[in-house]
Amino acid sequence: MTDPIVKQESEDERWTSAIAVHYDSKKRLSRYIRGYLFLAIAIAAIWTSSQGILMPNQVQILQFGQFFFGPDAGVDLQALTELGRAVAAGDIQPTAEQTRQLALLSDFEASRAAGLALVTTTSAIVVMILQPVIGVMSDRTRSKAGRRAPWILYAALVGAVLLVAVRFAPSVAVLVVLWTLTELAFNVASNPLQATVADRVPRDRRGRVTSWTSMGSIIGGLIGGIGAGALFGLIGLDFYLILALVVVIAAVLFVTRNRDESSVELERDKFAWKPFLRGYASALKAPNYRWLWISRALFFFGYSTTTVLSLYMLQSYISPALSATQASATVPLLGLCGIPTTLIAVAVSGRLSDRIGRRKPFVVVASILMAISLSIPLISPTLPALFIQVIITGAAFGIYIPVDNAMFIDFLPDPARAGRDLGLATVAMNLGQALAPALAAVVVAVTGGYQFVWVAALVLVALATLTIAPIKEKRHTLA
């Protein structure tokens, strides 16, 4: 009887060698990794700086005027937050005017969380629905530039233009539309980029390659966060313009220096919607792929539930509260604190999983570490506790990201349709990220605070750990 895992791997190798050049040459592989790393850094910088700093501040600025205008236009949110805590503790008896402003603050808190949730949830849902279609379209693309390059290049260019438009959004409604299109464009670029790993890298090198490429997300997040936080007081939302320029340069360099094989001569099956939709169901019928998909969705659902409101938590959850400017500068410092553990974990986990021939134990350990980290701010809602939390979270993510990516490539139900199935894998992440802002906003509106946001996140990540258990992984021995 033929071992199905061995059969899948042999088909994987035959298919990828038929449609693209394997980077067996160390020089070509190194150049590919550098190009991938630069583009991944640029895209990650956009996600981190926009969703962590620029977008929350932009929504806050737009919503502030809806509540604090006229004589209230100059209100100090930081001072008002501390006043609310003193009143809640019974240390101060508020005046009628203070009571009125505290009521406005409460409404503003719920409104800005809901506004940010509307922007991020709408975009994530649209991307989630269309992401697999993007993968299939890149699989079916026939051009002299290959299957992936046209999507990577042109989507990045369109995304850069849209990012400039986001900067000048006059309202939350317009921001929702522009950011949704922007996020879609950059996902159109990043999904085919990820598929190039399945196309061009042999299986026994994927763990180490995904370790390197995952560093792009880490380094990009660091650069984007620190840059946006440090420069927000000087250039504010104009940081969007810098991001747009960098991603254009990175996309052009990747496509021109890592040329794909022409796909013009490749056969292409006739497209039909019914088999297309059935293909997703068939992918999720594969048990290992399905459980891994569910686990990823829960993992990102839990983690994103806390991160989406990071800026607001620094202003309203921890004690003492920070101002908007202080919070914007602190968010990237928190990210920086977690970088050393993340980089060490990324450098070790992917390569080690290649060496021992198993991925599952690494994902389990990462999920457990993430759950532990999310309990810390519940115990101590202070800034030092948040720094400890991100250090542990950094280690968890460093272990999780490269190995989880490699597992999805290992468990592709159909290697001939890597773009489709990796696009579906990205849906799991997008689903978690789409649901998280809505859940966080509802929790804040219902409970009037942020404590139970951490509780919800902890429960979700714990569930992600449990759903790894059914995965059956056969040890792979390196040649």
TrEMBL record:
Keywords: Membrane, Transmembrane, Transmembrane helix. Pfam families: MFS_2. It is a multi-pass membrane protein. InterPro entries: MFS_dom (IPR020846), MFS_trans_sf (IPR036259), Sugar_transporter_CS (IPR005829). The keyword Transmembrane helix applies. Residues 58-474 form the Major facilitator superfamily (MFS) profile domain. Its main location: membrane. It is found in: Cell membrane. GO terms for molecular function: transmembrane transporter activity. The keyword NAD does not apply. The chain crosses the membrane at residues 35-54, 113-137, 149-166, 172-189, 209-233, 239-256, 297-318, 330-350, 362-380, 386-403, 424-446, 452-471. GO terms for cellular component: plasma membrane. This is MFS transporter. It comes from Microbacterium hatanonis.
